[in-house]
Amino acid sequence: MDIACSKEELKLFERIGDAAQKMDVQCYLIGGFVRDKLLGRPTKDVDIVCTGDGIALAHNVAKTFVQPPQVNFFKNFGTAQFRLNGLDVEFVGARKESYTSDSRKPQVEPGTIEDDQLRRDFTINALAISLNKEDYGKLIDPFDGTKDLEAKIIRTPLGPDVTFSDDPLRMMRAVRFATQLGFEITEDVFEAIKRNKGRIKIVSQERITDELNKIMAAAKPSVGLDLLFRCGLLKEFFPQFTDLSGVEIIEGKGHKDNFYHTLQVIDNTAAKSNDLWLRWAALLHDIAKPATKRYEDGHGWTFHGHEVVGERMVPKIFKQLKLPQNEHMKYVAKLVLLHLRPISLTKEDITDSAMRRLLFDAGDELEDLMILCESDITSKNKVKVKRYLENFEIVKERLKAVEESDKIRNWQPPISGDEIMQLFNLTPSREVGVLKTAVREAILDGIIQNNYDAAYALLVEKAKELNLTPIAKL
Ligand code: CTP
Question: For atom 22 of ligand 1, which residue has the closest CA?
């Protein structure tokens, strides 16, 4: 089989073949490595299957190096792994697997290479290449995986109901590979996903989300998200997202389908940035539209406050999907909250102070917010989109100009909360907050200058209203 391998990879394969021969077992390259090499995609994960003890083979291969790599192994699963020059090399014994209906944990017994291939998820992942002396390099392809690679098809080696009930995560994987590789899922496989979608419940949310994130990281995430929606899987674990779908019509007025609008926004964002969390912000920007939807007589459809309700939904959704509860979550929540702000600045008569406020509120996230907001401009009306985008460019220019003159991003007011406490002999209290806000607002509104003396004078004024007197000027 002709596949492009580095010298190092070829040397490693020879060592594996030799070690297996000494143990009198057969060994093969298998799975994603073979698939990706045949597709010409870069890959660093080498999977080896042998007709015997995979852990022993890994140890025997490792021993042949002057500086043997450390072998990690999992006795229960019969797998072993080591890292070598950036390659992740995994060994497993060929096996027959059968699964009980209420668990993902397989019952495993030794098998032949064909048994092993038959139990793999897709024909394109069941390709093996021999590393044995007698037929080194021979492609073993009992299910026409190479044909499917050429035809760009996702198909299962067994009947799809068996493959998916063996391991329901594979339904997510089918969609993920279709998205990453630009392949089609065959109709009978897609129908089987529809039938078996409820079985996804036995898979841990972490593993489902892992696949979802791979879909989100693809060049065009909408492909996978739409497939997940149409087969019914998405509703199983993320009903808030599918709630966005559909159009309601009252008095002849409809609103847009917010699910498909969101998919468009995700793709637009993905075209401009690889940042996974910015893409999540795109996914969640309108998540509260169903909860805030109203039909107002004479006015039409409104979604007032969806950005505020959406911000509050973010932590719940992150928890439900087992996404990290850390600064990434805060970042997504912040962008959801602010996603309407830049576009509101495209109206006429916008003051510098409104620009300053956005710079202050967005801080380091300004560029990402602008990408999200620009991506949110979707309409079938090309003229409208063009006009919005032109106005948006003007906002960008003005933001740049205000930032250059005022340096308001990540700005700290000239008098801090601690200083206010010292000045008025206060303990942490409501008054400190009132005074601090007064200074910040006055500077952002351009009422006073951005310096200590101006801020001090304003504080003294404001303090009088609160019956406070300064004890000292710092
Ligand atoms: N596999 C499977 N069923 C699964 C997971 C994996 O049959 N639920 C098999 C497939 O043959 C797959 C191989 O195990 O090719 C390795 O799995 P994995 O490393 O998860 O995926 P890859 O196919 O290598 O793809 P990627 O690295 O993109 O995840």
Answer: 32
CA distances from 339 to 222, 285, 302, 366 (A): 20, 7, 16, 10
Instruction: Find the angle CA(258)-CA(175)-CA(200) to the nearest 5 degrees.
Output: 90
List of residues 6+ apart from 258 with CB closer than 8 A: 244, 245, 286, 289, 290
CA 189 – CA 159 distance, rounded (Å): 8
Q: Minimal CA–CA distance to 375: which of 272, 221, 258?
A: 272
Using CA positions, which residue lies closest to atom 8 of ligand 1? Answer: 170
Q: Does any ligand 1 atom lie closer than 6 A to the CB of residue 121?
A: yes
Q: Which amino acid would we find at residue 271? A: A
Which residue of 118, 125, 140 sits with most ligand 1 atoms within 8 Å of its CB, as the best mutation to test the pocket?
125
Ligand 1 centroid from CA 121, angstroms: 8
- CB contact at 8 A, 125 and 160: no
Residue 143: both structure tokens together? 């299910």
- Taking phi first (over 0 means left), then psi (-120 to 50 degrees means alpha), and beta for anything else, what does residue 410 get? left
Minimum CA distance residue for ligand 1 atom 24: 32
- Give the confidence band of 349 by pLDDT, cuts at 50, 70, 90: confident
pLDDT digits (tens, 9 = 90+) for 351-384: 888 999 999 999 999 999 999 999 999 888 888 8
Spatial neighbors of 423 by CB under 8 A, at least 6 apart, are 415, 459, 470, 471, 472, 473, 474
pLDDT digits (tens, 9 = 90+) for 187-211: 999 999 999 999 999 999 999 999 9
Q: Is the dihedral of CA 274, 276, 282, 283 positive or negative?
A: positive
Domains delineated in the chain: 7-149 (3.30.460.10), 152-237 (1.10.110.30), 251-411 (1.10.3210), 417-465 (no CATH)
Alpha carbons within 13 A on the beta-carbon side of 302: 9
| Ligand 1 neighbour 125 (Cβ under 6 A) | yes
Q: Which residue's CA is the nearest one to ligand 1's atom 9? A: 120
CA distance 131 to 230: 42
CB of 32 sitting under 6 A from ligand 1: yes
Residue 385 and residue 377: Cα distance in Å, rounded?
A: 6
Q: Which atom of ligand 1 is nearest to the CA of 173?
A: 8
| Beta-bridge partner residues of 363 | none
> 201: which DSSP letter?
G
Query: What average pLDDT does range 311-317 have in this prediction?
Result: 98
Strands 45-50 and 87-93: parallel
